[in-house]
Structures are given as C-alpha cells and as structure tokens.
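Minutes, project check-in

Agenda point 3 was the complex the collaborators sent over. CS summarized: four entities, 390 residues total, and the question is how they sit relative to each other. Sequences were read into the notes so everyone works from the same version.
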Amino acid sequence: MTETQILNYALNQFAGIDADAFELSAPYWQRKTYAKGEFYNEYKNVCKYLGFILDGVFRTYYIDDDSADEKNVFFYSKNQVVVAYKSFVTQTPCSYYTESMTESTVLYIHINHLNELYGKSHDWERFGRLVAETAFNLAMNRAEQFMFRTPEQRYLELIQNHPDIFNNVPLYHIASYLGIQAPSLSRIRKRMVGK
Amino acid sequence: MTETQILNYALNQFAGIDADAFELSAPYWQRKTYAKGEFYNEYKNVCKYLGFILDGVFRTYYIDDDSADEKNVFFYSKNQVVVAYKSFVTQTPCSYYTESMTESTVLYIHINHLNELYGKSHDWERFGRLVAETAFNLAMNRAEQFMFRTPEQRYLELIQNHPDIFNNVPLYHIASYLGIQAPSLSRIRKRMVGK
DNA sequence: TGACGATCTTAACTTGGGTTAAGAATATAG
DNA sequence: CTATATTCTTAACCCAAGTTAAGATCGTCA
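CS then shared the predicted structure for the full assembly.
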C-alpha cells in the first residue's frame, strides 16, 4: 500500500471518510519526517497542523516551573492522530512540548484546510467531531488513571493496552508518564517478579 | 430576573446565543428541583438531558470495585452545565453517578431537542462545540491537577478558583475530590496554619 | 572488541499519604 | 437547650514513593 492508501484506509476506519471525501482532502496532506527529538509543536507555539502518524512515536510533555523536570502527558504512535488539541482548536499558544521520540513519518493537514473540508462534506464534519471525542477520551482516561488507579495498575494497563509504546520508549519516560520516578518503577517491576 | 431570563443571559454569555436562537429553544427547557442526594444520572443509565444549574451543587463520583468507596470526579455549581458528557454525546451507559449535594434547581433539555436545534441554527451549533470544549477542558484540567500538582497545591487551587464549592461541601468530599483521605486533608490544613 | 554514553537498578534515608479508631467540634432536631 | 448525628481532627503505625548517589547493564560506534 502507498502512504496515501494507508491514510485513506485509516480515515475510513476512524470516521467513515469515503472515497469522495478523501479525494477532497488529497491535495492538502503533506508528508514530513521527524528526527528523534525534533519538535512537532513547541511550548508557546500555536499548533496549526493535525498529523497522522505513519510511523514513529511522539510524546507531549510539560515542564514544571518548580521541579524543572519533564512530565510526559501523552504518547502517540503509529496510525494515530498527533495534535496539540486545545491549541489547535482554539488557535492559542500551547502549554506543552510535543516531540518525536524516534525517527517518524507523518502526514499532516493545515487547520485552514481542515476547516474548509468541514464546510464541504458531512464526512469531514463527522471527522472533526470524532477528533474532539478522541481528545476528550484521551484527557478523561488520563484523569481516571490518576484518580482511580495505583502506579502499579497504571503500569500494567500500559503494557496491556499499549505494548507498542512500552516497547519503543525508555523506562524513565514510562515512569514519567505514570507519574512516578524511575527508581519507583524499578521497585514496582521488582515487586511484580514474585507474582 | 425570571429563571428564563437568567438562562437566556447565561447562554448568551457562554455561547453567544442570541434572542432568536433562544426563542427556538424556549419550548424545550424544563424545570426540575432536586432534593439533597437525588440522582441527576445513575451508573449504567444513559444520560439524556443536559442541565443548567440555577441553584445548588452537584457531584459526579465513581465507585471503586476494590476499595468500595466513592471517588469524586467533578463538582458543578450555579450557572454551570451539568451533564454526564461522554454518556450524553455517545448515548451509552454512564460509568458514574451524578447526584445533587444540596437542594438544587435545574433547567434541562433533552438530547433530541438539542440535536434538533443544532440543525436549525448556527448559534446552537456553536453551543454544541463549546460544550464539547468545556468537557474537554474539565477533563484535561483534572488530569493536569493530578499530573503536575501536589495534594496541597490542588487544595489551594480549589479554594482559590471554586470558593462556592469549598463553602458548600463537607471536607471529606473535598478530600475525595483531591484524591486523598480525610485525615490527610486535615494534616495539610494543619501544616498550612504555620504559613 | 573495547570504550563510552545511555539506561536501568539498587541502596539508604526521608517524607507524606493510607488506615483505623478514638475523640472533639459542629449541626440539627426534638 | 439538650441529645443525637454528622463532620472534622488527631494519634499511631504502616507502607510506598521521593531523593540522591552509586553501581550495574546495555547499546552503539569507532
């Protein structure tokens, strides 16, 4: 499959974008490769693009003023959308950094073109709504992980639900995502060997 | 001001709903009072109504299978929307309970009527989008509170940003919302006296 | 393959929340 | 205005995560 076909297929799966609707969007998608550590969007920048990950893993992280260290907020991997959602929909500066953690390839579309598509087709309107719901679910899941689960439970769920991320990301980044320090994650892993 | 005028004003503030658009919706709004402890929506029920709180405080909470105790997820108070958002937009059973914590008064609208309004007016379409954004912000803020702040910081921010809630809710419910036990909140409060 | 840098684990100690149960303070109703 | 229920605080003990620094392991590239 060509990259365009992959995108077509994925958009159809995600939001029922049909061949005609995809045709409308075809001229707008651009391709970009990211080096490891390259930013998708930076702190204080307005996010103008919505990206579809063909390959690679991205993370968005927060830099704490006091503690000065990075806290991972979201991971995004292959066949997922990468976007600084709030910044993108409100076109306001972002509070986070979003960077590529590996060599990555992305197809992306500009917000103006997306807005244009919203007006042209119900399929794309539905896509917009589903991206909104996805963003909400992402945020809500994150809140629930912290409100209802222990670090150990969060760790197990990550391995279960996102082995692709677990297998491609250093443990100290996993720890940060789980809301704990690297030594704590080591202890959790050690404790679990007995089970 | 009559209750309808209050609603009209609030909808205009929130989403720029103009007089004509409000007129369209007027026949659909219903009024209901809730006794303390009465449910707005229950676990496993599909949330069919979006409510506007004229007076009172609501909470949504989660019941943990293991620990068996309630965990407060959101508070909603006067002049805010109360709705089990995910259940409402997807019309699927809710994972939470949402109940009134005080005597409350609500104006509510059925999802079918709201969908009807979306088709009839751009003002109402915008309203729908803004409710979606509000829900996202609520969830994202909650995630951020847990990812980036200590329990003490969360406590201070709650007092700062939501004194109305702080003043109308027992401390053990605040503790649950902050993700800690009541004795821990007492310790935090004691620690803070010195500052 | 050998050396360097990156990553992961471990140890020792500190800190803060969890748990349980008792008691103090506050509200509420009779 | 007392009795009762509700809410809040305190105490004592436990346990998990934070912190810091050292050492082990792993990868990579010259």
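Noted in discussion: DSSP finds nine helices and eight strands in chain B.
Follow-up: revisit at the next meeting once the mutant set is ready.
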